Amino acid sequence: MTLLFDAALVVVLLGLAAWVVLARNAFAAVAAFIAYGLLLTLAWLQLHGIDIALTEAAIGGGLTGALLIGAVIRLRTAPPAAPATSMTLALAAIAAATTTAVLAACVLALPDPAPTLAPLVADNIAVTGVENAITAVLLAFRSMDTLLEAIVLLFALVGAWSLGADSAWPGRPGFAQSAPPNGILAYLARILPPIGLVIGVYIFWTGADNPGGKFQGATILAAIWLLTMAAGLTDAPRVGSRWLRAALVAGPLGFIAVGVFGSYSAGAFLALPPEAAKPLILAIEIALMPTLTLILALLLPGPPQRTSS
Amino acid sequence: MNDTLLYGLTACALIGLGVFGLIANPAPLRKILAFNIAGSGVFLLAGAVARRGAAAGFGGDPVLQALLITGIVVAFSATALAVALVLRLNAVTGDVTLAEPPAEPTDDND
Amino acid sequence: MTTPSGWLLVAAVLLPFIGMMVGLVAGGRHAARVAALVIVAGLAIAFATARTVLDASQVYLLGGWAPPLGVALRADGLAAAMMVVVAAVIAGIGLYARRDFATPPGVTEARAPLAFWLLLLAVWGSLNLVFVSGDLFTLYVGLELLTFAGVPLVCLDGRGETLRAALRYLLFALLGSLLYLLGAVLIYGAYATLDIEMLAHLVQPGIVTWTVLALMTVGLLAKTALFPLHIWLPPAHAGAPAAASAVLSALVVKGSWFLVVRLWFDVMPAVVTFDAAQLLGGLGAAAIVFGSIVALRQKRLKLLVAYSTIAQIGYLFLMFPLAFDIATGAMLHGDALTGGLLQAASHATAKAGMFMAAGLIYAALGHDRIADLGGVARALPVTVLAFAVAGLALMGLVPSGAYLAKKLLLGAAASSEQWWWTAVLQGGAAFTAGYVVLVLTRALRSLPAPLQLATKVSRLSEFSALGLALLSLLLGVAAVVPAAGLPAGLISNPLAPKELLPTLLVVAGGFALAATLARRPLFGDGPWRRLMTAAGTGFENADALLRRWPTASLALIILAAAFGWLLHTGNPA
């Protein structure tokens, strides 16, 4: 029964992906991509990755989808690119088919039983004080990756900002929004923030022991903020604002500070003394949360465009 | 065929679709979409590999699952930077194409 | 186990990142000051790391967790040497850019200067991470950091054509990262670890590892812009501001190149086959010929230097076939690897100096048309000297690093009986000489009246270009430092007949190439010139075709298939 469900899901996923790639109309392709992202979360649930399902739904589907919709609307007036020649299409099809075939052969050749680090995680998770194994990997065993990931986001934001016009520096990202004050958007933007705030903070808080965590929580908070921006209730901050910049680096710098504390109290950079492991993990997450929320949200409006609000 | 293998093979097909779109679709925004399809294929492959490694009471290898979350965030950053570039290119030139403008007429005495 | 000085590796990675974040908060003029402080401290860390690595390789277990659960940072001689080279080049670029990227008076903050100083530090930290990370996934994050830091440098001036160049670069690099990540996932599926040292003992030839090595290698080649995957390089490197070009050309491409070295020598030495190594070296040889000829056909100096980078990237891959040991069927750490490393070091310093000199010429003249460079040597003697010294260093004159590298690689070619690489190594220098000769003959021509310069160039910038070029020319002196561990007798008297004759041949070959291929004749016309010019036009057309997106992305997949096939057929498993 479940295999039947999987098979049906897979067929729909492949159909949507083909639509994304092949559709003539860019808007239709983006719409199919969002549907694809949402359905993909079901695949993650089937593969026992609830944390990934949450991340995929929040970031892979939601934020990426919003970003691409905004782009496709802005590009409506751009002249279409010259279509590919049939020669290119044929060769691309051969290349794609070969890629798939070779990869499938590799998947079939993977060793059985599969090698895994799961037992090693089980043996060591107690030291970290958290119960969610993924949080233990992200904030204890491989916390360097998580620190670097926050820096990746910061690089992307600095890179996007650097594309702005000189005349708009250090102004506000995106265009000024003015939705009708009594419209549905403004209504939603007044109703949803308190609810979103509660859900976002809950998902963040529960991440230590249950599925969820800072990225998923931060995405929800970012979405709420973007909604109020779209409704014209709030405005994006100026990129020159000191408090904004301080908040953008507070997460990674706080993370590094905890890491340095670890090198004195537990003998290694990013090490967590067992008696204080859980509070320190929470401290890192609390430091990262505002930074991630700000960066995830501000990556959507892009570079500064205007000097006034 | 079990479900893990099914998702693993689906992932290979998604990567193939993404590769096709990256090569064949001339519009940069569509290349970004294709990159995301191929990327999600790689992530799904990783998810299937992690599921194969289920042990010690975990439904999947938590190390690989955690790497996946990092990967998804990195892919989003890449998408955001690429979209910002496309939009800026459009704003500056009124055009979005990767092809370089035709070279100046070749004149050997220039 | 973490070694006593292992913390230096953490510092080398994090210090530039912290500097970048502090610079962002401080903003405006302070960003350049923060960068200056970080450069001083970073140089000290790089030299301290190299000092400790001379005694023993350094290791740091992050969080105290040992692989496979945790992530280790490791520095061997290879990593430490690259760290020192990068630190030196960053310092040179930092001095050079003080004038170009100063915040203009009257404003508290300007976009381009702020972005440049932040991205310079970002590139540095990312490169150090790529050099010392011992984990394939952390390396993936490092590669992405490097790409995100490098791409905005291309379009700092905000013009349409540089934005387009940056977009091409980003999209092609993303295709490369996708293949790399795919390889990392498959290898985790096969061995449940991503730690380089553990994998070195575990990896066995088979369909999974052939595919992994082919995918990862080709993905990294796309980011390195090895011919024929150089689609993005010429417009990106030629369009960026000079200081940014120097960062991109001298440093950023070395990150992905370094990772290819790690994969072939340290992660999967047992998977590599003779044929696959020959293909990698063959691409390098093709890059030298192709890049040099197209460089000679350019009208603009910065594009000439960009195409010369394509040729120089080719040199970095000649060591792969020469390091392959037929007896054991694996890649050996030996003279060939040392030679390749020296080539990377000499190219990084010389190419940075060359781009900086080209940028100064552009700024002073208000253009960089090669045909109209006459009189520039008199107007900007230090700058033209920097260009000449960088050119001589790239040609491999005694005692440059490239000379030493050539000696080591020639020795490896002789001992492994691969005579065809001897021909490539000797002939390649003549191609390099070709475009250096072309630029210098134009620049040294005198004009009846002195040139009117568009702007006065900064002395500091001129001397930092010259300093880096001289560093490259004198790198060969490393041979006499006993700690470098190089064979004795590599450096000989440059005026001895055994040395002088090849040098003269190289220069003569360069003159012949420049005279027959340059757009405007150097010494008159003739049938030879017409023949060669036609061939040159053919190369240009081939370049235009190869740099179209569909061709380049198909070439990527075809190369991956070729590598996979050669790894498979050479490995009867």
UniProtKB/TrEMBL annotation, chain A:
Pfam families according to UniProt: MbhD (PF13244), MnhB (PF04039)
Membrane topology field: Multi-pass membrane protein
Protein location: Cell membrane
Keyword Transmembrane helix: yes
Domain MrpA C-terminal/MbhD: 12-76
Occurrences of domain Na+/H+ antiporter MnhB subunit-related protein (ranges): 184-292
Keywords, in A-Z order: Cell membrane, Membrane, Transmembrane, Transmembrane helix
Membrane spanning residue stretches: 27-45, 57-75, 87-110, 147-164, 184-205, 217-234, 246-272, 279-300
Any one GO cellular component localisation term in the record: plasma membrane
Similarity field: Belongs to the CPA3 antiporters (TC 2.A.63) subunit B family.
Record's protein name: DUF4040 domain-containing protein
Species in which this protein is naturally found: Glacieibacterium arshaanense
TrEMBL record, chain B:
Top-level division of the source organism's lineage: Bacteria
Residue ranges of the TM segments: 6-25, 32-51, 63-87
GO cellular component: plasma membrane
Main localisation: membrane
Location(s) in or outside the cell: Cell membrane
Keywords: Cell membrane, Membrane, Transmembrane, Transmembrane helix
Gene3D superfamilies, sorted: 1.10.287.3510
UniProt membrane topology term: Multi-pass membrane protein
Record-stated family: Belongs to the CPA3 antiporters (TC 2.A.63) subunit C family.
Record's protein name: Na+/H+ antiporter subunit C
Automatic annotation (TrEMBL), chain C:
Gene Ontology biological-process entries: ATP synthesis coupled electron transport
Membrane topology note: Multi-pass membrane protein
Gene Ontology cellular-component annotations: endomembrane system; membrane
Entry's localization field: Endomembrane system; Membrane
Domain NADH:quinone oxidoreductase/Mrp antiporter transmembrane: 133-428
Record keywords: Membrane, Transmembrane, Transmembrane helix
Residues that span the membrane, as ranges: 6-27, 34-54, 77-98, 110-131, 137-157, 169-191, 203-222, 243-265, 277-296, 303-324, 344-365, 377-399, 419-444, 465-488, 500-522, 549-567
Keyword Membrane: yes
Primary site of residence: membrane
Molecular function terms from GO: NADH dehydrogenase (ubiquinone) activity
Pfam families (alphabetical): Proton_antipo_M
Top-rank taxon: Bacteria
Alphabetical list of InterPro entries matching this protein: CPA3_Na-H_Antiporter_A, NADH_UbQ_OxRdtase, ND/Mrp_TM
Protein name, entry field: NADH-quinone oxidoreductase subunit J
Organism field: Glacieibacterium arshaanense
Source taxonomy: Bacteria, Pseudomonadati, Pseudomonadota, Alphaproteobacteria, Sphingomonadales
